[in-house]
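User: I'm designing a mutation panel for Serine hydrolase and want to avoid disrupting the core. Could you give me a predicted structure to guide residue selection? Please restate the sequence first so the numbering is unambiguous.

Assistant: Good idea. Sequence first, for numbering, then the predicted structure tokens:
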Amino acid sequence: MIRPIAAALAFLLAPVCVTAQEAKPPTEAASDILKERAEDVAAVLRGEKQAEAVFAPAFLAAVPATQLSAIGEQLAAQFGAFVGVERVEASSRYQGTIYLRFEKAIGSGNLALLPDEPNMVGGLLLQSFEPIDDNADKIAADLAALPGEVSVLFGPLADGAEPIMSINPDAQLALGSTFKLYVLSALARSIENGERNWNDVVELNVKSFPSGRLQSWPEGSPLTLQSLASLMISVSDNTATDQLIRVLGREAIEAEAAQIGHSDPAGLMPFLTTLELFALKADKDLGTRFAEGDEAEQRAVLDELRALTGWTTDNISGPTFVEPTMIDTLEWFANTGDIAKLMDTLARYEDQTVRDVMAINPSMPKAIRERWAYIGYKGGSEPGVLNLSWLLFDKNNAAHVLTMSWSNSEAGLDNSTFELLAQRIVALAE
């Protein structure tokens, strides 16, 4: 259901898998072999050479030739036709950085060869895509071509500032795990008010289903509030999230959303735990009753559910849905302006800890991170739902927000396409 977005927003073809070598200045021969293999990679992307002749068996075991072909088609759809190798920069005998030119972008990342002849490609990781002659209209057209409904907001958070891009701003779309930022804000406010401390220790007495790690930890394990918050945001730990909701109380988080200024608080109330969402989606009758009820009925359903399950997974079947399931009625909802207000709140807390937590997993490639003073991130997804949201500070310490939502009740989503669009949108600020 809810999973973390890739940690570096990298476009992963396969992990680097080469024998460790002593780092030495690249020789001309080493540079030549890297260039030769880079051209071989280009030939595979063009369909001119078989993948088996270029990539090592271990690579193809992870990424079969059919998947490589699909990746090439996806890149072409996003960045135009593949043109060729722009350049290769060797960093050692068998490793370097490859730059691939497409019509609308240059993709760059790590290229690694096996040290034994014929020096097949053991790893390729394209981490960044630099737009070429890109603009907001082209990006908007690519967003409009996506199936389902999309909303986007990118721009400064300063009062009265004009957005760089705004699409479908009034749509209340599902957030997936991005809702956890409301939990983080409620926790930060409680700490700012002197009610709690980041170092307060809580004994684990909640269980949910993955994503995350804590679902397998023993009951009673001691965790600080900062540890719970860090796991909730950086790896989207559902058990950590529900533990914090139990500590803070559902009502406190609902009050936080209202104080921040959510435009339609009913879209977040009652404020569900991850376990409750799993349970309601797993039980069609109960889920329908909840979705069709007014707020009083919904709270009654949650009371019944709590009596049945407590705060554990013992009496709930694990999530089995692999297609969009009630994503228009059973989720956490917000529009782009709501997320902008939330990010603005998180940006203004005097305690830097809240932003340190958000920056553990910035979900942007290094080339983009280096252009900003700070990047914090939370995203969320389930079948048919994807949200990507960033808080960014530029080198002048001006706060910006990028939030993107995509919902399609008819089919699953191509997450990497949306993630690559995010890189293009961020580049509009340059």
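For picking mutation sites, this is relevant: The radius of gyration is 23 Å. Confidence is low (pLDDT under 50) at residues 1-30.
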